[in-house]
Amino acid sequence: MDFFTNPNILFYIAAYLIGSIPFGLLLAKTFAGVDIKSAGSKSIGATNVLRVVKETNPSLAKKLGAATVILDALKGTLVILFAMSMGMSESTLWAIAVLAVLGHCYSIYLGLEGGKGVATGLGVYIAIVPIPTLIGAAVWIICAKVLKISSVSSLLGLTAVVVSAVLMYDGLNIGSNAPLYIIAFIIFYKHIPNIIRVIKGEEKRVI
Q1: pLDDT digit string, tens, across residues 61-101
Q2: Over 80: is that where the pLDDT of 206 sits?
């Protein structure tokens, strides 16, 4: 019974379950009546929400895309902020961060399928390493404006977060950069199909 009353374990479970909530799928179904799991890239993220809903309702697509980014980020941020308020250790916070991203990318509600993890990764990073995350967000926005390729912009922004955090923090205050790298690896791994399409010159632009 101690297992289910251990605050660390409870936070780990909550992080994964909350991270697993597919907000993009729910928003698109509720407000646009479309199933993004069977259209576009079949991802549950904001880019696919924008792409699929835009076909029938461009103005709604922008709103739902923005809402998806915000909610996907918040499901990582809020759990960590609550854990912080409860005095959880730095190592526990990073474990929560990894599990929230895993939940989004491998959702228990979708048969362990999910999104690419960018917004949720942004959400957990901003709570623990805010300055590097703001640097990464700026890189993301600039690249998105210039390149207009969501996947490339996201990965460049992610790389900027990781590099900045490594330079600014000494082992993330836990003696290791491993959690930072694990989250980045998960997100890069989920983007392998996008990376292949970029190499082939087939990756679609977001207009």
Answers
A1: 888 888 998 999 999 999 999 999 998 999 999 999 999 99
A2: no
Residue 207 in any domain: the answer is no
**Residue 43 Cα distances to 92, 120, 190, angstroms:** 29, 14, 10
Residue 205 within a domain:
no
Q: In whole angstroms, what is the distance from residue 145 CA to residue 112 CA?
A: 32
User: How big is the chain, counted in residues?
Assistant: 207
If you search the block for the tokens 């992610």, which residue do you land on? 158
Domain holding 40, by residue range, is 2-200
Backbone angles phi, psi at 42, to 5 degrees: 70, 15
Q: How many domains does the chain have?
A: 1
pTM for the model? 0.88
